[in-house]
Each structure stands twice: as structure tokens, then as C-alpha cells.
């Protein structure tokens, strides 16, 4: 595959989902891969106080590896990352558990630096329904209030692990475009986590963002998925909802022990292993596809998109330009966003 394009010759590279076993090795691979910004999971099932402890741990990483990474909070931090040769790390939750049952914590977690929150992680939550539930009653009363509060403070509504009706209601109820940060279309691979044409169309029509996942359980042919198949799927999705709404959310879970999968799927709600994706057990982390093993392989995706027929500007949009535009109108509190939809430096890329 071609090496990474020089910084001056390409747009931003933004990955809208990773959950690695964070280390200097991974941070250096981010830099080697020219990754300007990454949305990282800092909570799956944690309470508020446990989430604060995770933020404390990240603060130590920012101190120790300040030459490689820093805490990203605003769209302008993508430009800062490119100017300083670092990667901006944006915080997100894969579950609403950090706000517990207190709507006031929405503003608090945003103040602490969170920028994304899923309303569900596979199961029914206090806010909405997860994709593994058989019944989907949609957003709850609290869910509607929390979405309104998330809109107000600048916390992105993420429906990556949610069922269809809940996702469609979130799109309709949210005053700001929402995101599905890491999933794939169900027309390509019918995993429970992947999204229907109806959801994809509604997301695009509302101005939302869709991040394509490279996690094998979400891929056609799983670990054996080819780059051509993946990029052809991106092209078909662009035909369905438009190129402006597409980005990457790799769901890279690098160097994690298999025990972490149990925490992701089980949390504290059951003593039984919930493997999802039907009745077949899928223990541990699957092998990644050969064309995307870690952050150094983003250039492979760029090359694959070009081979699939995308133009230079279209590739730049999918690799990060679309996410940057979304960040510019999503992270600020509502009144501030109305007054200035971006920071002056955010476009200096």
C-alpha cells in the first residue's frame, strides 16, 4: 500500500471511535499514521465517579506523553494537532451510565471534556433501547429530556449501539444532527449492530454523521473482509445518503486482553456472558483485517477509496473533513454555536 500522504497534501485524518489498551506504542502509531484526532471511549458501564477516575488516568497520559497527544475539546483542536504534530483525544461514553439518573450531570461531563455519549449500549437504558433488545419502545421520557440537554451543552448524541426506533426518534427529537460513530450498513452485513437503510437515510437527511467500523464482527466476511469490499460498501452508502455524511469510526480495540470483552458486553447487569450477534459464542477479540491492523494503516483506506473511484476531495471528506465540519457545529454550547459556528483556526488545515 502507499505510504501516508504528506500533511500538506491531505486533509485531516479523524477516527470517530477507538478503545485501545493505551500506551506509548499506540500513541506513536497514531503519529506514524498521521491521525490528527481520535474519539476514545472512556466509559462503558462506569458510574460518574468511576468515569472521573478514568479522566484522571487520561490526564496522567496527557502529562506523560504530551509530545504525542493532548485532550481535544473543540473543533479548533484538530488544527492545533496538525500544527504541533500531535493527536487530539476526544472523550466519549458508550453508555449513559456516567450521568446515572441525574440530568444535571450532562453539563458536568461536558465541562470535564466529554463530547460524545451513546444513549444505549446494546441493552435498554434509562434513555433508549439497545440493538440487542427484542422490543424497541423508543426514547423514554428521560431520554427526550437528556437529548434536549445534550443539545444545549454540546454533547453529541451517539446511537451506534441503539435499535432502529430509538435511533429514528433520536434523529427526530434532537435539535442538532446526531452521530452513529461506529457501525456499518446492514445491507452489506446483517449484524445486529449495523444500520438499516431507513436509519441511514434519516441520518443523512437530518445532517448527521455515520462512521464506518473496521471491527471484524461488523464486517462482511469478518476478519477476511477485503479492502475492496469495504470501500465498495462505502461507495454504495455514499450513493444512498450522500458523501457529506460519511466518515470513519474504526472501533479499533488494540492490545486489549480478552477479559475486556466481558466488561464491554456484560458490565454489571448479568452474570452470564452476552456475546450478541445471535446465539453463537464469539469469545475474545477477533483478528483485525490485514489492511487495518492499527493506526498506521489509515493510508491503506485512503488508497482503497481512490481505487474504488472516489476523487481526492471525496477521500479527504471521508477520512476526516466531514467529521471536522460536524465537530465545528456540535461541541459548543448552543448559544455559543449560534454566534460562531467555528473557531478561526479550525479551518487553517
**CATH fold type:** TIM Barrel
**Overall pLDDT:** 92
Strand coverage percent: 5-15%
Give the CATH architecture: Alpha-Beta Barrel
Oligomer: single chain
Cα-atom Rg, whole angstroms? 18 Å
What's the CATH C level? Answer: Alpha Beta
- Tally of separate helices: 12
Low-confidence stretches: 340-348
Distance between the termini: 25 Å
What's the helix-strand series? EHEHEHEHEHEHEHEHEHHHH
Shape: globular
What do we call the CATH homologous superfamily? Metal-dependent hydrolases
Helix content: 25-40%
Number-wise, the strands total 9
Q: Largest sheet, described in full?
A: 6 strands, parallel
What's the structural domain tally? 1
Structural class: alpha/beta
Amino acid at each position: 500500500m502507499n505510504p501516508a500522504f504528506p500533511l500538506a497534501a491531505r486533509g485531516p485524518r479523524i477516527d470517530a471511535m477507538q478503545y485501545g489498551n493505551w500506551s506509548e506504542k499506540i500513541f506513536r502509531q497514531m503519529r506514524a499514521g498521521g491521525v490528527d484526532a481520535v474519539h476514545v471511549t472512556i466509559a462503558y458501564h462506569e458510574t460518574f465517579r468511576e468515569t472521573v477516575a478514568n479522566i484522571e488516568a487520561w490526564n496522567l497520559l496527557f502529562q506523560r506523553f504530551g509530545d504525542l497527544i493532548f485532550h481535544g475539546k473543540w473543533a479548533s483542536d484538530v488544527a492545533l494537532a496538525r500544527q504541533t504534530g500531535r493527536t487530539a483525544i476526544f472523550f466519549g461514553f458508550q453508555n449513559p451510565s456516567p450521568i446515572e439518573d441525574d440530568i444535571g450531570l450532562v453539563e458536568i461531563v461536558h465541562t470535564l471534556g466529554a463530547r460524545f455519549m451513546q444513549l444505549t449500549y446494546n441493552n435498554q437504558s434509562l434513555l433508549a433501547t439497545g440493538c440487542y433488545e427484542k422490543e424497541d419502545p423508543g426514547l423514554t421520557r428521560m431520554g427526550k429530556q437528556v437529548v434536549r440537554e445534550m443539545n444545549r451543552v454540546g454533547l453529541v448524541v451517539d446511537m451506534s449501539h441503539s435499535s432502529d426506533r430509538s435511533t429514528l426518534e433520536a434523529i427526530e427529537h434532537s435539535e442538532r444532527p446526531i452521530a452513529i460513530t461506529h457501525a456499518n450498513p446492514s445491507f452489506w452485513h446483517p449484524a445486529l449492530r449495523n444500520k438499516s437503510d431507513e436509519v441511514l437515510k434519516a441520518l443523512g437527511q437530518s445532517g448527521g454523521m455515520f462512521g464506518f467500523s473496521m471491527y471484524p464482527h461488523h464486517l462482511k466476511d469478518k476478519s477476511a473482509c477485503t479492502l475492496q469490499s469495504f470501500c465498495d460498501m462505502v461507495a454504495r452508502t455514499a450513493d444512498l445518503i450522500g458523501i457529506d455524511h460519511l466518515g470513519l469510526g474504526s472501533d479499533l480495540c488494540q492490545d486489549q486482553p480478552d477479559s475486556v470483552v466481558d466488561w464491554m458486553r456484560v458490565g454489571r447487569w448479568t452474570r452470564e456472558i452476552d456475546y450478541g450477534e445471535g446465539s453463537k459464542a464469539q469469545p475474545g477479540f477477533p483478528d483485525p483485517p490485514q489492511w487495518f491492523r492499527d493506526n498506521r494503516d489509515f493510508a491503506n483506506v485512503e488508497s482503497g477509496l481512490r481505487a474504488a473511484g472516489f476523487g481526492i476531495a471525496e477521500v479527504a471528506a471521508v477520512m476526516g473533513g466531514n467529521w471536522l465540519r460536524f465537530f465545528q457545529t456540535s461541541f459548543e454550547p448552543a448559544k455559543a454555536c449560534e454566534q460562531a459556528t467555528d473557531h478561526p483556526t479550525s479551518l487553517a488545515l
